[in-house]
User: What shape does this take?
Amino acid sequence: MSADRTPSDGVAVCVIGAGPAGALIAHRLAAGGHEVTVLEAGPRFDPEQRIEQMEDALRPAHGRPDIWGMGGERDAFTSSGDRHYPLNHTRVKGVGGSTLHWQGMVMRLHERDFAVASRDGVAADWPIEYDDLRPYYAAAERALGVAGASDNPFEPPREDPHPMPAFDPSHSDSIFAEACEALGITTHSVPNARNSERYDDRSACVGYGTCQPVCPSGAKYDATSHVEKAEDAGARVIDRVPVQRLEHDDAGERVTAAVYATPDGETHRQEAREFVLAAGGVETPRLLLLSESPQYPDGLANSSGVVGRYFHEHLFAGTSGVIDRETRQHHVGFNTTESHQFYDEPAAGTDRGIPAADAGADDLGPIKLEFRNYGGPSPVGVALSDGGWGDELRDRISDTYGSHLTVGALVEQTPRRENRVTLDPSRTDDHGNPVPEIHWGLDDRTRRTLRRANAIQEAILDELDAEITWQIGPENTGPAFHHMGTTRMGTDPDGSVVDARGQTHDLANCWIAGSSVFPTGGAMNPTLTIAALSLRAADHVEKRL
Assistant: This one.
């Protein structure tokens, strides 16, 4: 409460949000000699508490949002549409943002992802191509610290190897490799934003195995790394100051101030020459909608009516089974092997065992197969939730552990205008503002893609003579916790919010960074693309300065 949270004078750039997008931009601009202030709604978490957080995460009494303090009036939301959206399970408010609890998998989008409308006749093309992001992808891999083998024959062209060597395949990867070779499926390593060796003053991974929701060792990248670098370069980062609205000049052409609240109930105005909104795919459109004015009655930067629209996710498909072999599940807490063979051609079969999709079902999105190292229950999870003791508990742990395998997948959700983030005036947060309402549902193309992913997964487990124990598909799928598309980029101001640089069409000094600008999301985890776009946007902001 005693921290100074009054505004700064002479600020060149005000960044709203201290997640990966905001942290990378703040560091780049502060290192260039510019005065930068970062306003973050959530707190600073003490890294010394991460062992305790990990222990809490292992206990059944603690839900995922509890670990990072999500929930309550501050984080209230509503959900509507065909599917409930579990918003507070999917995000962390605080310095570091959602990289505090992320999986840490970092892949580049494929070239096809930038031109889905031209290729498949759905959604919208990006206003940039893969080659426009190619050098920024390389810079992002260096900034985050990515371990990889560059052995993926399906990935787009790259110029440099990954900064660190890949993690070794797990024991269960070797089991999957046998089945995949028999079926003609090519497997490869997974790029991970966690250290396989010491890098950037962070230790190598020591194998706690609780990567989600806590990395106690700090080997996995999170945005506090670049927050600290930004502060070392002179940036000012203020926590627990949720921005209530943005103000603009009389002409409605420039943002003049970010109005924020402090923990002691005061309200301040932070003025700046340039403003960067990096608050995520839900809070960024919410802030714009809360900033309505006579010039922008539908929300700031929303002359297109697109702010909040085209919310999309990655959907999870999974199939799990047990086999009569030791699998060593949960020895590794992240994925070390994948296959992108069905990414660009999801309907294609293989010459050894995977049939092509049924005729007429070739309108599919990309599929990213994941061979999970953590299928089935963990011994700790069984012990803490069983309620038993002694020999009987030991026997039940033995019976339920060590023979499970899971094949997961992320699939693309087709962006649709009706999937959106709006304001719910019937419910307010702790500052009296309408909470975000998530309208979310699935389309037939996404359902077909989920079914296709399940069919491939079943074939792999059948090859291993596994007894399938559960499956997640079109009817019970859930989100991968990737908020995309609510302030999408494009060349047409009537159909997009920002241009190819991330600058809003309506206001010359207002920029948006993060996955909310994605017109489409492919099936790749979005953080590397967020980082690449943020580094690119920082260059454009610096040119204006």
Remarks:
- The chain has a mean pLDDT of 95.
- The first helix runs from residue 20 to 31.
- The CA atoms of residues 383 and 509 lie 55 Å apart.
- The two ends are 34 Å apart (CA to CA).
